[in-house]
């Protein structure tokens, strides 16, 4: 298997976690006692923990290694501002695609970074693929619930659309591998820009949605999501 084939398969697998999460949410919608309230909030918080691990273990360390401290800070700040403006715009439209936009807003730059990381060598690409899988499943779950509750789309159409969006992963990874890997500063800027957006989305959308009074499952889910990312980081670094 060639390296590019391996990269495309990894990015497709990461993308396939989105419709998998949507199918899980659909099952929960048909059989609401399948998961229950506590486990539903656990899944939401798990995605937040996985996202934070991607920021802390891959995107920020890789991004800051390619840029000066001042430019790193400016790129990170720009990401936060842009995601704030996007979120404000969607809120004013009363749109039902907020979680979907959030999912793609971190999936696309991470897939690009995945391709570029493999082109540059090292273990960051494999770890990033693992973290993308961990976060895309609960994000697919959340986005399906939002769309099914606030739009006229049928469950089948939503799952089918998410399956099509999974193909964005290989396309983005190929772009990073062939076109952007030689531009270290640009890749660093993209990683930091995406990092700020991910943190904004975690605290604006995921953390409030995962809150459950008198239950600790959401907090356990967030810790578990980060823990799996940390274990993956140590295993890959050790190998």
What would you say this structure looks like, in words?
- This protein is an all-alpha fold and 239 residues long.
- Helix content is 86%, strand content 0%.
- It has helices at residues 3-30, 36-64, 69-93, 98-120, 124-150, 155-165, 168-180, 184-210, 217-238.
- The radius of gyration is 17 Å and the shape is globular.
- The model has no long low-confidence stretch (mean pLDDT 83).
Key descriptive features of the protein:
mainly alpha, globular, 239 residues, 0% strand
How much helicity do the residues have?
over 70%
- Uncertain runs are none
State the helix count: 9
Radius of gyration: 17 Å
Largest beta-sheet characterization:
none
In one word, what is the shape? globular
Structural class, from helix and strand content? mainly alpha
Average predicted local confidence, pLDDT: 83
Distance between the termini: 20 Å
Strand content: under 5%
Q: H/E element string? A: HHHHHHHHH
Number of strands: 0
Short structural description:
The protein has 239 residues and is mainly α. The protein is built from 9 helices and no strands. Keywords: Membrane, Transmembrane, Transmembrane helix.
Topology at a glance:
Elements: H1 3-30, H2 36-64, H3 69-93, H4 98-120, H5 124-150, H6 155-165, H7 168-180, H8 184-210, H9 217-238
Helix pairs in contact: 1-4, 1-5, 1-6, 1-7, 2-5, 2-8, 2-9, 3-8, 4-5, 4-7, 4-8, 5-6, 5-9
């Amino acid at each position: 298997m060639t390296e590019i084939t391996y990269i495309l398969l990894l990015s497709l697998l990461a993308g396939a976690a989105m419709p998998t999460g949507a199918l899980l949410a659909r099952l929960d919608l048909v059989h609401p006692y399948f998961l229950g309230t506590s486990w539903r909030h656990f899944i939401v918080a798990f995605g937040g923990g996985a996202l934070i691990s991607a920021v802390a273990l891959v995107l920020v360390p890789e991004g800051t290694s390619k840029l000066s401290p001042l430019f790193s800070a400016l790129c990170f700040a720009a990401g936060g501002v842009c995601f704030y403006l996007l979120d404000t715009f969607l809120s004013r439209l009363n749109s039902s695609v907020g979680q979907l936009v959030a999912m793609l807003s971190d999936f696309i730059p991470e897939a690009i970074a995945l391709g570029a990381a493999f082109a540059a060598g090292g273990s960051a690409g494999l770890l990033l693929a693992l973290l993308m899988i961990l976060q895309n499943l609960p994000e697919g779950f959340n986005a399906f619930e939002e769309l099914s509750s606030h739009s006229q789309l049928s469950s089948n159409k939503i799952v089918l659309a998410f399956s099509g969006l999974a193909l964005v992963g290989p396309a983005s990874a190929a772009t990073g591998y062939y076109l952007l890997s030689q531009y270290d500063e640009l890749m660093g800027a993209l990683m930091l820009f995406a990092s700020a957006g991910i943190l904004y989305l975690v605290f604006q959308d995921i953390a409030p949605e995962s809150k459950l009074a008198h239950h600790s499952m959401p907090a356990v889910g967030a810790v578990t999501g980060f823990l799996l990312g940390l274990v993956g980081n140590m295993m890959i670094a050790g190998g």
